[in-house]
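Input for the complex:
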Amino acid sequence: MTPAYSVIFFTTASGAGYGLLFLLGLFSAIEAVPADPALGWMGFGLSLGLITFGLLSSTFHLGHPERAWRALTQWQSSWLSREGVLAIFTYGPTVLFAYGWLYLGDTSGVWAVMGVLSALGAAATVFCTSMIYGTLRTIPSWANKWTPFNYMVLGLATGAVLLNALQNLLGAHSQNITMLCVGSLVLAWVGKIGFWKVDPMPYKAGSATGLGTIGEVTSLSSPNTNATFVQREMGFQVARKHADKLRRISVITLFVIPIILTVATVFVSSGLAATFAIHALIFTIIGIVTERWLFFAEAQHVVNLYYGDHRS
Amino acid sequence: MTMLPSSLPPKKLGLVIDLDICVGCHACAVNCKQWNTGGHSAPLTDHEPYGNDVFGVWFNRVHGYEVDDGKSGRAVYFPRSCLHCEDAPCVTVCPTGASYKRGEDGIVLVDHDKCIGCKLCSWSCPYGAREFDEDEGVMKKCTLCVDRVYNENLEEWERLPACVITCPAGARHFGDFADPNSDVSKMSAERGGYDLMPEMDTKPVNKYLPPRPRQLDEKPNQLLDAPEKGFLGWLDKVLS
Ligand code: SF4
Ligand code: SF4
Ligand code: SF4
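Predicted:
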């Protein structure tokens, strides 16, 4: 699949934004983080900023962005529509939760309920995003449980790295958040290993054309001399050797380095811990963008079988 | 609504494509383009139609395949267009309700006034049947010539899809698959009409008829065997 930069930006930014929102909502409800105004302003600013810019950028690749509101109507059948509805719904409790935290300094009682609702909305929205891809049978490497697992856990992990960086910047170090960071990064790593094990194309041209019952099917003449829309959109394939290198880069920058740096924050002075946490964040950003680019670039669509991919 | 019709449409309109007969002339693709660029989904835009970077919207594309049957081998021409699937994923993924399947006859269409051009439907179609119109910013696809088959301004014999009526070999047929006595149903039953990529669970309405086995492959070339009678038998004796 051809990677669209607006979609890469949207899924990574909103994933991290919702991950951060999820953690703010849940942690303050269980009183694991104090309603510190500095953390609040930075946390809500960042998470809502990432979510909002992400959502806006996802409309850039539309043929008719001015009609985007129509995408809220088909929630009964379409995961894309559900994603839109939940994204908008989540703003409600989030704004109230932020109001309680920032203006009343209160994250208990009804404000805690708002926090939990924001966290649930955030998780549900990311789940819907993942199911847009996870339900496409035409792309076998996406149509499995690893896709929602990866989107959810990567959202959580990138949100946790963000929160860890914010806390350390503010000079507050929380062991819980460090552990959560490392735990979610390890889990996300496991998720990627599982995802990369899936056979990207178990189908054959023989079944695409139905001629496989007669013999081995090879494309003899393409219908078109230049690439069609379908080939431009679905035909992109990153070379195996580049993909392997990029997979390694994403594992190192998204998992290995951030895990080491985050663990190291426990053992150093708070000044150095902040530097480490921020570097962990920088590497995570490089890693998640590489991971998401590969998610699209490595995906193979069954329509390519008609154009000579995978004989017989 | 992008929900599929809740009850089975009373009619199941679609095509039979006979791979035994198709000669790969592309006439169906060209007449489809010609009719539809002025029809329901008009225009089917082209970029640089006379330049090097030809790029345009087509609803029908004709492939050629080599099928190695381990015998004499064969070339099969293979037109590919929307199959008007019963469980059309392109309809259920659409977030706007622009893609829909008609309750009365099962034709899958796009409402171009509602489409936001998110292209998700084209990702969900296993058969590459949807092509995005870059100029109009909306998705386009085969309409099953809905503007011909019900068109009372046309003579009755003309009320067929453009691709069907133009095929010089008679490889394409249009009809109602819900009626077991329709020509298309009977033809498909007799000849073993099949679905493309059944593992995608789309339940295509269009059926493809397989190439017939060839007599050549059933009865290998007689001249290669040693004939016993007649002139060739005599020749065989003399020569061996
Ligand atoms: S062939 Fe593709 S576009 Fe046509 S109904 Fe089936 S899934 Fe939809
Ligand atoms: S491109 Fe248009 S028709 Fe296709 S899914 Fe998006 S809104 Fe629906
Ligand atoms: S039915 Fe009409 S729109 Fe569909 S492929 Fe044939 S000519 Fe084109």
